[in-house]
Amino acid sequence: MDIILITTVIASLFVVIGAAEPFASRVRLPYSVILAVLGILIGAGATFFLRTDLTDALNPVAEAILGLPIRSNVFLYVFLPMLLFQATLGMNLRRMLDDWVPILVLAVVAVVVATVSIGYALSWASALPLAACLLIGSIVSTTDPSAVVSIFRSISAPRRLARIIEGESLLNDAAAIALFGLFMGFVMLGLPDPDLGDALAQFPVLIAGGALTGWVAARLAVWVMALFSRHELAQLTISVALPYLAYIVAEQSVGASGVIAVVAAGLTLNLTAPGRLPPQAWTSLRELWDVLAHWAGALIFILAALLIPRLLESVQLEDFFLVGVVILSAIAARSVILFGLMPILTMLKLSPTVERPYRVAILWGGLRGAVTLALALAVTESVRVPDDIQRVVGILATGFTLFTLLVQGTTLRWIIGCLGLDRLSPIDEALSRQVVAVALQTVREDLARTTENYDLNRETVRAEAKRFGERLDKAVNMAEENADILKRDRIALGLIALAGHERDTILARVRERTISARMADLVLSDADRLIEGARTQGRSGYQRAARESLAYGRPFQAAVQLHGRLRLSGPLARMTADRFELLLSRRLILRDLGTFINGRIRRIHGRRVADLLHELLSRRIEAVETALEGLRLQYPGYAEELERRFIRRTALRMEEREYVAMREDGLIGAEVYTALMQELAARRVFAEERPPLDVAIQRAAFVRQFPLFADLDDGAMKRLGRSLMTRYVNAGEMVLRKESMAKSVFFIASGAVELESAGHTWRLGRGEMFGQMAVLTRKARRADVRAIAPTTLLVLDEDRFRRLLSRSQGLREAVRNSAEQRGIDPAGLLPDE
Question: Between the CA of residue 670 and those of 420, 660, 661, what are the distances in Å?
Fold first, then answer.
């Protein structure tokens, strides 16, 4: 075929793709539906002109369209890895990890339920062998969430809900294609009735092998990309090669799922690359993949749709009945998941509450698309699959896809409107009116200053001011009509706005390179938790999310155990350094939020709400300062090194800004500007490097901070440093329980604890100890001890504590005072001096 003609056809398809998106927006239909309709029309038109006698002038073009090398391998090996890989890069994985249980259960269980339901329903309704029916079930069990997610975003649905749907769909595709490979093998081997248990038993092997392959490939890719830190184009090129190599190695060499390998590679790159690559390189990488995936997604849809007329050529009357069976069984299977499994997960507190209207929208939004057609095409191309099975698979998959696109897709927005999901809640409606009134007041003030500066005609200014004043009065009156918003709702809305501004501030600081890309991912995740906490549970949800952002997570606790038991300090040093930088970044952000409360929230929600938000913000700042001070005490000097790094990075950003301004003003030419920027980039590489943290070396300096140990000599201090064990506890965590046996004494390095005994409570803070009386009296503990803030404890066992007591006058004095406060005679407890 003429290469010029093929190039012309492909270029024309890009023109169609470019015009389809604004057209879909205008007619308010999902973009994928428009692409599918255009592809069907193009394919049907080409077939018509080839077979008609009206004219032969368009035959070369029609032949070029129908002769495009559209094969299943093109979809599965070229387009699919690109789409899956980009989807993983665009996800907020740390937030998705919060919901990994519902995502994983919905994805895997939904695929298995849909495959089995459709397979057995077809087996009952047709003469097809069970293996072929299950194959069809796996083909049509994949979902394309783009339509429902885009609509959910346009109606401001909960972000967590959209995130679960996206995560479910990504793993849904991977699981369905893995099952497709299993049942395709049974069909090609001629096994009519496979053992379903044996088939599903192979499923975990495919997933595990693919996940391991993808993880190894991504780790190697990140390592190589880090070596090329000054060559951004080289890093982008390696990222393009990664998904294809992972896919091919998993499929051809390991015998595992290539789709799972691509997903695992993308997830690993998403988690590790921001900390290893320069921020600009990571931003460019994601922008490149956004463009590639947009083209790939559109091309796979429109090329797959070109095949639909061909796949439906041999359709028969009884095939419509089987398509109906597939439709009903697929909807029933998805209903079981949405209305049966999801409420159970919610009751078990493994999934957020999904209201019934949202579940109906998700059910009707389960569109199928290019992946389903590509898998069906793979069956029709295989010479090892019987012709009658090829025909039925092609027709049923195509017919079901057309139903979801042309029926569900075109009515999805109408369904959402009928469910009332496209309307603002009364609170949001009242808030919007207040926002309009405040915004117009600000605009009037700014407009008055602008007209004065430009010395405009006074009559014109007066006429427009009168017109604008009428609109402002109307907006104020409408806002006053809805002034009865409950205070708790105003507080929740104010907190949502505050957390949203916090997120915007983080993004601005990342663009300025004040905050590194590695830390940006963490603080953005925390900001998202604050937004969702305030949206779902108001002030209590916001405060809980704020506390959790400072808590020591399970990975940190595991790193502590590795350091304490196996002396492996690498993970603890890395996580502690991350925590240092995270707290410094969060402190930087929080201190900028007070202006937003005074300038915006106070005008919309009033003084009382603004004052309360200031109080909550002050508590967050105090908690961050406390946590940071604890780390400063534990690792003296390291916080100063990070602050020096921050100052150097800020200076480089300001220097870059000056060069850009001089270039725009024409003070320096392109050659000088390029040389200056190259020198700046070289210095920035060194400024971005984080100083190493040695947790072992810091222990002696840490112990020296305690007044209790001030009178120890250097030798005793070193021995004590080796003897003390570090324990980290979160706020609310129980440290000791009443009636437990006394084996250790605890010294508070940072944070605070609360002791409760016989109905009385008292608190201890940094530099104090507890547990010593139970050890010295050899009795069970008489108090419950609970941490009331993220706390770092030093733990000393009983024998070493007694030896230390005999050497330290300061420690003996502290024990004596503690005993006297409790009415205990210290004479028999303390060793002779």
Answer: 56, 11, 13
| CA dihedral angle for residue 189, residue 194, residue 198, residue 200, rounded to 10 degrees | 100
CB neighbour burial string for 646-667, b if at least 16 within 10 angstroms, e if fewer:
beebeebbeebeebeeebeeee
User: 162: which 2 tokens?
Assistant: 């959209």
List residues bridging with 235 in a β-sheet.
none
- Tell me which CATH code domain 698-828 carries: 2.60.120.10
Q: Which two tokens stand for residue 213?
A: 């392959």
Q: Which residue has the tokens 């032969």?
A: 56
Q: Which stretch of DSSP H or E encloses residue 236?
A: helix 232-248
- Rounded to 5°, the CA angle 374-380-386 comes to 145
Strand partners, 785: 736, 755
- Distance of alpha carbon 796 from alpha carbon 790, whole angstroms: 20
Average pLDDT value for residue range 38-47? 79
User: For residues 91 and 266, what is the distance between their CA atoms, to the nearest angstrom?
Assistant: 10
One-letter-per-residue 3-state SS of 349-371:
CCCCCCCHHHHHHHHHCCECCHH
CATH of span 72-418:
1.20.1530
How many whole angstroms separate alpha carbon 370 and alpha carbon 372? Answer: 5
State pLDDT tens for residues 134-170.
Answer: 888 888 887 765 555 665 665 555 666 667 777 777 7
H helix or E strand, kind and range, residue 763: strand 760-764
DSSP β-ladder status, 753-757 and 760-764: antiparallel
Question: Which 3-state string (H, E, C) describes 42-104?
Answer: HHHHHHHHHHCCCCCCCHHHHHHHHCCCCCHHHHHHHHHHHHHHHHHHCCCHHHHHHCHHHHH
Cα–Cα dist 196/191, whole Å: 12
List, for residues 484-497, the tens digit of each pLDDT value: 566 677 788 788 88
Question: Based on the number of CB atoms within 10 Å of its own CB, is 775 exposed (0-12), middle (13-18) or buried (19 or more)?
Answer: buried
Amino acid sitting at position 418: C
Distance between CA atoms of 748 and 724, rounded to whole angstroms? Answer: 12
- The structure tokens 């663009």 sit at 511
Task: State residue 826's pLDDT score.
Answer: 58
Which positions ≥6 away from 412 have C-beta within 8 Å?
30, 147, 148, 151, 361, 364, 365, 367
- The residue ranges of DSSP E strands in 441-600, in sequence order, are none
